[in-house]
Amino acid sequence: MSERGFILVKIGEITLKGNNRRYFENRLMDNLKEAVRGLHHVKVAKEFGRMYMNYDLSEEAEVLEKAQRVFGLVALCPGVEVDPDFDRISAAAVAQVKALKAETGMTRFKVEARRSDKRFPMTSPEICRDLGGVLLSSIEGLQVDVHAPQFLVNVEIRDRAYIYSREIRCHGGMPYGTAGKAALLLSGGIDSPVAGWMMARRGVTLSAVHFHSYPFTSERAQEKVYDLARQLAVFTGSIEVTSINLLEIQQAIMENCPEEEMTILSRRFMMALAEQVAKENGSQALVTGENIGQVASQTIEGLTVTNARVSLPVFRPLIAYDKNDIVEVAKRIGTYETSILPFEDCCTVFLPSKVVTKPRLAQIEASEANLDVEGLIQRALEGKEVLRFER
Ligand code: ATP
Ligand code: MG
């Protein structure tokens, strides 16, 4: 049989799941299979309590790239699979360690062997000793270090032999689709895509709701939000975006309410509209990128007043993050470059010259009484557009 690539898949928290473990593992396997769909020779399997992938070596880079984005994985250990014969194992290990040393400069290693198939003629300690010797004599500059090795050369003997010495860290979390569904208020900014990604990493299925003020906001601004949705779909597989025009609402607020309440009043409409969409598409919670203290409207008083508009729970995973930390995540997940494109947002179109930082609910509700709230909400929902984006 030819040399095939193989990846030992390390899963994290799922192993804590007791009786539900199988449910989470099966979901993870399905998500992994879905992530590498389109590649020809990949198999995802579970055997002896471990999950692994098996593929044609020519597809290795792609398999790793796609698999790395699947939530629930802690690490991928790519290696090779050969016939269970010591010479073949040695040849494969030498090639692997040579490449690893060239790439990383690491030299201090330790061999770890595990023999599940007792038909193999050497014991695990013998494999460690002999393979260590072969590596030392074949590659210059290596050193055995059993106490603090820089890398492990793992050998597992089953029906075939598996050799791996690299470990690629993944995002961890829980398998997507195992923790209910939530509606993400997705703007074109830096924060909300990150907030959505963090919830998705916990297994929460996302749908997105975006508000625009077309034609005051442009089609390019809308396209930017769709690009962000596509970037989230790289991790989630697909995502549905509901776009709602807020223009009539913003104009009504401008004409009938105090200027400094513009932001808080539009925010309450956004929440109410998002909650309607959530209830229609089966979402059980709302998610925003709000963050305490970041802008004038994001005070405890401001959040209290927006929160009071809805009855679904509102998750704000970034509430206590520093901006730098949010930017770091945005860069890591690939949304940052899109987020900083300078297109106008519906909030910037009607940016008031002053903002109430400590709104009182009674006062805000009194202002809303000047508006035909139900009519405005109904008309905004009637004009909504729904699109689905795939990975
Ligand atoms: P972001 O970078 O996510 O836009 P921000 O720091 O600019 O956040 P705000 O503009 O005050 O903060 O918005 C706070 C949150 O309200 C956003 O994270 C998002 O969840 C929601 N939101 C704001 N504008 C919109 C919009 N146009 N469409 C959908 N949700 C929005
Ligand atoms: Mg914003």
TrEMBL record:
Presence of the UniProt keyword Protease in the record: no
Domain THUMP: 61-168
Catalytic activity reported: [ThiS sulfur-carrier protein]-C-terminal Gly-Gly-AMP + S-sulfanyl-L-cysteinyl-[cysteine desulfurase] + AH2 = [ThiS sulfur-carrier protein]-C-terminal-Gly-aminoethanethioate + L-cysteinyl-[cysteine desulfurase] + A + AMP + 2 H(+); [ThiI sulfur-carrier protein]-S-sulfanyl-L-cysteine + a uridine in tRNA + 2 reduced [2Fe-2S]-[ferredoxin] + ATP + H(+) = [ThiI sulfur-carrier protein]-L-cysteine + a 4-thiouridine in tRNA + 2 oxidized [2Fe-2S]-[ferredoxin] + AMP + diphosphate
Superkingdom of this protein's organism: Bacteria
Pfam entry (one): THUMP
Protein name: Probable tRNA sulfurtransferase
Keyword Cytoplasm: yes
Role, per record: Catalyzes the ATP-dependent transfer of a sulfur to tRNA to produce 4-thiouridine in position 8 of tRNAs, which functions as a near-UV photosensor. Also catalyzes the transfer of sulfur to the sulfur carrier protein ThiS, forming ThiS-thiocarboxylate. This is a step in the synthesis of thiazole, in the thiamine biosynthesis pathway. The sulfur is donated as persulfide by IscS.
This protein's pathway: Cofactor biosynthesis; thiamine diphosphate biosynthesis
EC category: transferase
Example of a GO cellular component annotation carried by this entry: cytosol
MF term (GO), any: ATP binding
Annotated TM spans: none
GO process annotations (BP): thiamine biosynthetic process; thiamine diphosphate biosynthetic process; thiazole biosynthetic process; tRNA 4-thiouridine biosynthesis
Positions bound to ATP: L185, L186, H210, F211, R267, G289, Q298
EC numbers: 2.8.1.4
InterPro entries linked: Rossmann-like_a/b/a_fold (IPR014729), ThiI_AANH (IPR020536), ThiI_fer (IPR054173), ThiI_N (IPR049961), THUMP_dom (IPR004114), THUMP_ThiI (IPR049962), tRNA_STrfase (IPR003720), tRNA_sulfurtransferase_ThiI (IPR050102)
Family, per entry: Belongs to the ThiI family.
Keywords (A to Z) from UniProt: ATP-binding, Cytoplasm, Nucleotide-binding, RNA-binding, Thiamine biosynthesis, Transferase, tRNA-binding
Annotated localization: Cytoplasm
